[in-house]
Protein backbone atom coordinates (compact mmCIF):
# COMPACT_ATOMS: atom_id res chain seq x y z
CA UNK A 1 0.00 0.00 0.00
CA UNK A 2 1.39 3.39 -1.00
CA UNK A 3 1.86 6.08 1.61
CA UNK A 4 0.17 9.34 0.65
CA UNK A 5 2.13 12.47 1.44
CA UNK A 6 -0.17 15.22 2.61
CA UNK A 7 -0.77 18.16 0.28
CA UNK A 8 0.57 16.38 -2.79
CA UNK A 9 -0.73 16.62 -6.38
CA UNK A 10 -3.86 18.64 -5.55
CA UNK A 11 -5.63 21.26 -7.72
CA UNK A 12 -4.87 24.83 -6.69
CA UNK A 13 -8.05 25.35 -4.62
CA UNK A 14 -7.50 22.03 -2.89
CA UNK A 15 -3.82 22.83 -2.35
CA UNK A 16 -4.81 26.04 -0.59
CA UNK A 17 -7.30 24.19 1.57
CA UNK A 18 -4.81 21.38 2.22
CA UNK A 19 -2.12 23.93 3.03
CA UNK A 20 -4.31 25.34 5.77
CA UNK A 21 -4.98 21.82 7.02
CA UNK A 22 -1.27 21.08 6.90
CA UNK A 23 -0.39 24.19 8.93
CA UNK A 24 -3.12 23.27 11.39
CA UNK A 25 -1.66 19.77 11.65
CA UNK A 26 1.89 21.07 12.11
CA UNK A 27 0.77 23.39 14.91
CA UNK A 28 -1.11 20.53 16.50
CA UNK A 29 1.92 18.23 16.33
CA UNK A 30 4.24 20.86 17.78
CA UNK A 31 1.88 21.31 20.72
CA UNK A 32 1.73 17.58 21.30
CA UNK A 33 5.50 17.27 21.19
CA UNK A 34 6.04 19.94 23.84
CA UNK A 35 7.00 18.57 27.28
CA UNK A 36 3.81 18.81 29.31
CA UNK A 37 1.88 16.78 31.85
CA UNK A 38 -0.70 14.28 30.67
CA UNK A 39 -3.55 16.53 31.78
CA UNK A 40 -2.28 19.32 29.54
CA UNK A 41 -1.60 16.74 26.81
CA UNK A 42 -5.21 15.59 26.84
CA UNK A 43 -6.39 19.20 26.77
CA UNK A 44 -4.56 19.66 23.46
CA UNK A 45 -6.19 16.65 21.82
CA UNK A 46 -8.63 18.78 19.86
CA UNK A 47 -10.31 17.81 16.56
CA UNK A 48 -8.26 18.51 13.43
CA UNK A 49 -8.15 17.52 9.78
CA UNK A 50 -5.64 15.32 8.01
CA UNK A 51 -6.20 14.72 4.31
CA UNK A 52 -9.83 13.66 3.81
CA UNK A 53 -10.28 12.79 7.48
CA UNK A 54 -11.63 14.81 10.39
CA UNK A 55 -10.10 13.46 13.60
CA UNK A 56 -12.78 14.09 16.19
CA UNK A 57 -12.10 12.33 19.50
CA UNK A 58 -9.49 10.05 21.04
CA UNK A 59 -10.12 6.34 21.48
CA UNK A 60 -6.84 5.41 23.18
CA UNK A 61 -3.36 6.78 23.78
CA UNK A 62 0.12 5.34 24.25
CA UNK A 63 3.59 6.78 24.62
CA UNK A 64 4.11 6.81 20.83
CA UNK A 65 0.65 7.04 19.29
CA UNK A 66 -2.93 8.22 19.56
CA UNK A 67 -5.91 6.42 18.07
CA UNK A 68 -8.66 8.76 16.94
CA UNK A 69 -12.28 8.26 16.05
CA UNK A 70 -12.55 10.06 12.73
CA UNK A 71 -14.90 10.80 9.86
CA UNK A 72 -14.21 10.65 6.14
CA UNK A 73 -15.24 14.10 4.95
CA UNK A 74 -16.10 13.05 1.41
CA UNK A 75 -18.40 10.18 2.40
CA UNK A 76 -19.24 10.61 6.08
CA UNK A 77 -17.91 7.11 6.83
CA UNK A 78 -16.57 6.56 10.35
CA UNK A 79 -12.99 5.33 10.56
CA UNK A 80 -10.25 5.01 13.17
CA UNK A 81 -6.96 6.82 12.62
CA UNK A 82 -3.78 5.75 14.40
CA UNK A 83 -1.43 8.73 14.63
CA UNK A 84 2.17 7.57 15.20
CA UNK A 85 4.77 10.12 16.33
CA UNK A 86 7.85 9.07 14.39
CA UNK A 87 10.33 10.92 16.60
CA UNK A 88 9.20 8.83 19.58
CA UNK A 89 10.03 5.51 17.93
CA UNK A 90 13.23 3.71 18.83
CA UNK A 91 14.73 1.22 16.38
CA UNK A 92 12.71 -1.66 17.82
CA UNK A 93 9.37 0.17 17.56
CA UNK A 94 10.23 1.48 14.09
CA UNK A 95 10.77 -2.11 12.93
CA UNK A 96 7.45 -3.08 14.51
CA UNK A 97 5.73 -0.25 12.63
CA UNK A 98 7.21 -1.49 9.35
CA UNK A 99 5.94 -4.98 10.15
CA UNK A 100 2.49 -3.62 10.99
CA UNK A 101 2.27 -1.70 7.72
CA UNK A 102 3.56 -4.53 5.55
CA UNK A 103 1.26 -7.11 7.12
CA UNK A 104 -1.94 -5.07 7.22
CA UNK A 105 -1.47 -3.83 3.67
CA UNK A 106 -1.15 -7.41 2.39
CA UNK A 107 -4.12 -9.11 4.09
CA UNK A 108 -7.88 -8.91 3.86
CA UNK A 109 -9.50 -11.16 6.45
CA UNK A 110 -12.67 -10.69 8.51
CA UNK A 111 -10.82 -11.35 11.78
CA UNK A 112 -7.95 -8.93 11.12
CA UNK A 113 -8.44 -5.17 11.42
CA UNK A 114 -8.50 -3.64 7.93
CA UNK A 115 -6.04 -0.95 6.86
CA UNK A 116 -7.76 1.51 4.50
CA UNK A 117 -5.24 4.27 3.87
CA UNK A 118 -1.86 5.58 4.99
CA UNK A 119 -0.86 9.25 5.13
CA UNK A 120 2.34 10.88 6.30
CA UNK A 121 3.24 14.36 7.47
CA UNK A 122 6.65 15.69 8.46
CA UNK A 123 6.59 14.09 11.89
CA UNK A 124 3.68 11.64 11.95
CA UNK A 125 2.36 8.60 10.17
CA UNK A 126 -1.41 8.14 10.02
CA UNK A 127 -2.91 4.68 9.62
CA UNK A 128 -6.56 4.88 8.58
CA UNK A 129 -8.32 1.76 9.85
CA UNK A 130 -11.84 0.41 9.80
CA UNK A 131 -13.86 1.61 12.79
CA UNK A 132 -15.33 -1.06 15.06
CA UNK A 133 -18.35 0.39 16.84
CA UNK A 134 -18.51 -2.48 19.35
CA UNK A 135 -15.39 -1.34 21.17
CA UNK A 136 -12.91 -3.92 22.44
CA UNK A 137 -13.25 -7.30 24.11
CA UNK A 138 -12.01 -5.99 27.46
CA UNK A 139 -14.86 -3.48 27.61
CA UNK A 140 -17.29 -6.20 26.57
CA UNK A 141 -16.17 -8.45 29.45
CA UNK A 142 -16.33 -5.57 31.93
CA UNK A 143 -19.86 -4.78 30.79
CA UNK A 144 -21.34 -8.27 30.50
CA UNK A 145 -19.03 -10.37 32.66
CA UNK A 146 -18.01 -13.89 31.73
CA UNK A 147 -19.60 -15.36 28.61
CA UNK A 148 -21.34 -18.67 28.05
CA UNK A 149 -19.26 -21.52 26.67
CA UNK A 150 -21.06 -21.45 23.32
CA UNK A 151 -20.17 -17.79 22.77
CA UNK A 152 -16.60 -18.36 23.99
CA UNK A 153 -16.26 -21.13 21.41
CA UNK A 154 -17.49 -18.84 18.64
CA UNK A 155 -15.12 -16.07 19.71
CA UNK A 156 -12.18 -18.47 19.90
CA UNK A 157 -12.83 -19.89 16.44
CA UNK A 158 -12.68 -16.36 15.06
CA UNK A 159 -9.46 -15.54 16.91
CA UNK A 160 -7.97 -18.85 15.81
CA UNK A 161 -8.81 -18.01 12.20
CA UNK A 162 -7.11 -14.64 12.59
CA UNK A 163 -4.02 -16.19 14.16
CA UNK A 164 -3.76 -18.66 11.29
CA UNK A 165 -3.40 -15.68 8.97
CA UNK A 166 -0.62 -14.27 11.15
CA UNK A 167 1.21 -17.58 11.21
CA UNK A 168 0.87 -18.02 7.45
CA UNK A 169 2.65 -14.67 7.07
CA UNK A 170 5.23 -15.58 9.76
CA UNK A 171 4.03 -12.78 12.04
CA UNK A 172 4.07 -12.94 15.83
CA UNK A 173 1.70 -10.40 17.41
CA UNK A 174 3.27 -10.34 20.91
CA UNK A 175 0.48 -8.29 22.51
CA UNK A 176 -2.69 -10.32 22.17
CA UNK A 177 -5.09 -9.30 24.92
CA UNK A 178 -8.77 -8.33 25.18
CA UNK A 179 -7.97 -4.62 24.73
CA UNK A 180 -6.44 -5.38 21.33
CA UNK A 181 -9.39 -7.38 20.04
CA UNK A 182 -12.09 -5.21 18.49
CA UNK A 183 -15.77 -6.00 18.04
CA UNK A 184 -17.74 -5.35 14.87
CA UNK A 185 -21.28 -6.24 13.84
CA UNK A 186 -24.43 -6.52 15.93
CA UNK A 187 -24.63 -7.85 19.49
CA UNK A 188 -26.13 -11.13 18.25
CA UNK A 189 -23.59 -11.54 15.45
CA UNK A 190 -20.31 -10.11 16.74
CA UNK A 191 -17.16 -10.36 14.64
CA UNK A 192 -13.84 -10.23 16.49
CA UNK A 193 -10.88 -8.54 14.84
CA UNK A 194 -7.26 -8.76 15.96
CA UNK A 195 -5.86 -5.23 16.10
CA UNK A 196 -2.93 -3.12 17.33
CA UNK A 197 0.08 -4.70 15.68
CA UNK A 198 2.41 -2.10 17.20
CA UNK A 199 4.63 -4.75 18.83
CA UNK A 200 4.41 -7.34 16.05
CA UNK A 201 7.37 -8.62 14.11
CA UNK A 202 8.18 -10.94 11.26
CA UNK A 203 9.75 -14.21 12.35
CA UNK A 204 10.88 -16.79 9.81
CA UNK A 205 10.48 -20.49 10.70
CA UNK A 206 13.29 -21.71 12.93
CA UNK A 207 14.15 -18.21 14.13
CA UNK A 208 13.48 -16.77 17.57
CA UNK A 209 12.81 -13.37 19.08
CA UNK A 210 14.23 -12.14 22.37
CA UNK A 211 12.67 -8.74 23.06
CA UNK A 212 10.52 -8.72 26.19
CA UNK A 213 7.30 -6.95 25.24
CA UNK A 214 3.58 -7.26 25.63
CA UNK A 215 1.18 -7.22 28.57
CA UNK A 216 2.34 -9.42 31.48
CA UNK A 217 -1.09 -10.89 32.33
CA UNK A 218 -1.25 -12.37 28.82
CA UNK A 219 2.48 -12.93 28.32
CA UNK A 220 3.87 -16.44 27.86
CA UNK A 221 6.25 -17.69 30.59
CA UNK A 222 9.20 -17.86 28.20
CA UNK A 223 8.87 -14.12 27.57
CA UNK A 224 8.57 -13.37 31.30
CA UNK A 225 11.75 -15.43 31.82
CA UNK A 226 13.70 -13.47 29.18
CA UNK A 227 14.03 -16.58 27.02
CA UNK A 228 14.02 -16.79 23.24
CA UNK A 229 10.57 -17.40 21.79
CA UNK A 230 8.63 -17.81 18.56
CA UNK A 231 5.03 -17.53 17.35
CA UNK A 232 3.84 -20.03 19.97
CA UNK A 233 3.69 -17.22 22.53
CA UNK A 234 0.56 -15.93 20.79
CA UNK A 235 -1.13 -19.25 21.57
CA UNK A 236 -0.49 -18.80 25.29
CA UNK A 237 -2.12 -15.38 25.03
CA UNK A 238 -5.06 -17.01 23.27
CA UNK A 239 -5.41 -19.41 26.19
CA UNK A 240 -5.37 -16.55 28.68
CA UNK A 241 -8.12 -14.83 26.69
CA UNK A 242 -10.22 -18.02 26.64
CA UNK A 243 -9.86 -18.36 30.41
CA UNK A 244 -10.91 -14.74 30.90
CA UNK A 245 -13.93 -15.19 28.64
CA UNK A 246 -15.08 -18.12 30.75
CA UNK A 247 -14.24 -16.69 34.19
CA UNK A 248 -14.34 -12.92 33.80
CA UNK A 249 -10.70 -12.43 34.84
CA UNK A 250 -7.19 -13.48 33.66
CA UNK A 251 -5.86 -16.88 34.80
CA UNK A 252 -2.80 -15.65 36.71
CA UNK A 253 -1.97 -12.50 38.61
CA UNK A 254 0.91 -11.01 40.58
CA UNK A 255 2.02 -7.69 41.99
CA UNK A 256 5.23 -7.95 39.98
CA UNK A 257 6.30 -9.89 36.91
CA UNK A 258 8.44 -12.12 39.14
CA UNK A 259 5.48 -12.94 41.37
CA UNK A 260 3.28 -13.48 38.32
CA UNK A 261 5.80 -15.97 36.89
CA UNK A 262 6.05 -17.76 40.24
CA UNK A 263 2.28 -18.08 40.38
CA UNK A 264 2.23 -19.55 36.87
CA UNK A 265 5.01 -22.06 37.56
CA UNK A 266 3.63 -23.14 40.94
CA UNK A 267 0.11 -23.72 39.65
CA UNK A 268 -0.88 -27.38 39.38
CA UNK A 269 -4.21 -26.64 37.71
CA UNK A 270 -6.00 -23.65 36.25
CA UNK A 271 -7.90 -21.59 38.84
CA UNK A 272 -11.38 -22.05 37.39
CA UNK A 273 -14.22 -20.87 39.58
CA UNK A 274 -15.81 -23.80 41.44
CA UNK A 275 -19.19 -22.46 40.36
CA UNK A 276 -18.24 -22.34 36.69
CA UNK A 277 -16.10 -25.45 36.22
CA UNK A 278 -18.93 -28.03 36.57
CA UNK A 279 -20.88 -26.27 33.81
CA UNK A 280 -18.06 -26.46 31.26
CA UNK A 281 -17.62 -29.29 28.80
CA UNK A 282 -14.42 -31.27 29.51
CA UNK A 283 -13.16 -30.49 25.99
CA UNK A 284 -13.40 -26.76 26.75
CA UNK A 285 -11.41 -27.12 29.97
CA UNK A 286 -8.89 -29.33 28.16
CA UNK A 287 -8.45 -26.76 25.39
CA UNK A 288 -7.75 -24.02 27.91
CA UNK A 289 -5.34 -26.26 29.84
CA UNK A 290 -3.41 -27.21 26.70
CA UNK A 291 -3.07 -23.61 25.58
CA UNK A 292 -1.80 -22.61 29.03
CA UNK A 293 0.46 -25.62 29.55
CA UNK A 294 4.10 -24.97 30.44
CA UNK A 295 5.19 -28.03 28.46
CA UNK A 296 2.82 -27.96 25.48
CA UNK A 297 3.74 -26.81 22.00
CA UNK A 298 0.89 -24.28 22.05
CA UNK A 299 -0.48 -25.75 18.80
CA UNK A 300 2.54 -24.67 16.80
CA UNK A 301 1.58 -26.29 13.52
CA UNK A 302 -2.18 -25.76 13.55
CA UNK A 303 -4.87 -23.85 15.38
CA UNK A 304 -7.79 -26.19 15.93
CA UNK A 305 -10.42 -24.87 18.32
CA UNK A 306 -12.04 -28.23 19.00
CA UNK A 307 -14.29 -27.86 22.02
Automatic annotation (TrEMBL):
Please give one Gene Ontology molecular function term for this protein.
protein serine/threonine kinase activity
Say if the entry is tagged with keyword Kinase. yes
Respond yes or no to whether keyword Kinase is given for this record.
yes
Question: According to its record, what are the GO cellular component terms?
Answer: autophagosome; cytosol; membrane; phagophore assembly site
Q: Which GO terms describe its biological process?
A: autophagosome assembly; regulation of autophagy
Could you tell me which residue ranges the Protein kinase domain spans?
53-307
Q: Which Gene3D superfamilies does the UniProt record give? A: Transferase(Phosphotransferase) domain 1
- Matching Pfam families: Pkinase
Question: What are the entry keywords?
Answer: ATP-binding, Kinase, Nucleotide-binding, Transferase
Task: Enumerate the SUPFAM superfamilies for this protein.
Answer: Protein kinase-like (PK-like)
Which residue stretches belong to region Disordered?
1-31
Compositional bias (Basic and acidic residues): 1-18
What family classification does the UniProt entry report for this protein?
Belongs to the protein kinase superfamily. CAMK Ser/Thr protein kinase family. SNF1 subfamily.
UniProt function note: CIPK serine-threonine protein kinases interact with CBL proteins. Binding of a CBL protein to the regulatory NAF domain of CIPK protein lead to the activation of the kinase in a calcium-dependent manner.
Q: What is this protein called?
A: Serine/threonine-protein kinase ATG1
- Origin organism is Gossypium arboreum (Tree cotton)
Amino acid sequence: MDVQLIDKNKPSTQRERSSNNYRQQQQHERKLMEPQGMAAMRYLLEPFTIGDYLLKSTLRESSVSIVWKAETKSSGEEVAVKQVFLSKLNKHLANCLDCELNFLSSVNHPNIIRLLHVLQSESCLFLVLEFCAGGNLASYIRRYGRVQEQLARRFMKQLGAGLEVLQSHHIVHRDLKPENILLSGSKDDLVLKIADFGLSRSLDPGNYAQTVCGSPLYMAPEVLQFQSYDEKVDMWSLGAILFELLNGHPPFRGRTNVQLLQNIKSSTCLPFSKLILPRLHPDCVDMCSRLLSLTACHFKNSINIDF
